[in-house]
Amino acid sequence: MVSAAVDIDGWVADGNYMWDLVWVMADTVVWLDFSRPVVMRRVIGRSLRRVLARQELWNENRERLGNLLSWNPEQSIIRWTWTQHAKYRERYRAAASELAETGVAPPNPQ
User: Fold this and answer.
1) Cα(64)–Cα(32) distance, integer angstroms
2) To 10 degrees, the CA torsion angle through 79, 41, 19, 14?
3) Where are the domains of the chain?
């Protein structure tokens, strides 16, 4: 489905879903390089709102307060975001630089 969607003119994709396919077909890539404080404020606010509202994420899954407070990045999106921000920022900087220099989409930086 993604292949068919990016095979036509005038599409927009967000996130890093199917990186290799989407980046190869894109004529423009926009990376919103937010600082760690901005990212943390947003992920904490969004996560707390989801916990308090008991918002369903998918397939009846919901954020749990215990997970948010965990120091284990495998359980807490807040801790994962804190520990991964610099790594992903560097990966995206390198990928953007490679794309600008070569015109070729680099492998998925995950």
Assistant:
1) 28
2) 150
3) 34-102
Count the neighbouring beta carbons within 10 Å of the beta carbon of residue 22. 21
CA 44 to chain centre: 15
Number of neighbouring beta carbons within 10 Å of residue 103 = 7
> Secondary structure of the chain in the HEC alphabet?
CHHHHHCCCCCCCCCCCCHHHHHHHCCCCCCCCCCHHHHHHHHHHHHHHHHHHCCEEECCEECCHHHHHCCCCCCCHHHHHHHHHHHHHHHHHHHHHHHHHHCCCCCCCC
Tokens matching residue 28: 């423009």
Phi, psi at 57, each rounded to 5°? -90, -55
pLDDT, tens digit, 9 for 90 and up, residues 11-28? 888 877 667 778 778 888
- In this predicted model, which residue has the larger pLDDT, 85 or 66? 85
Do the Cβ atoms of 15 and 31 come closer than 8 Å?
A: no
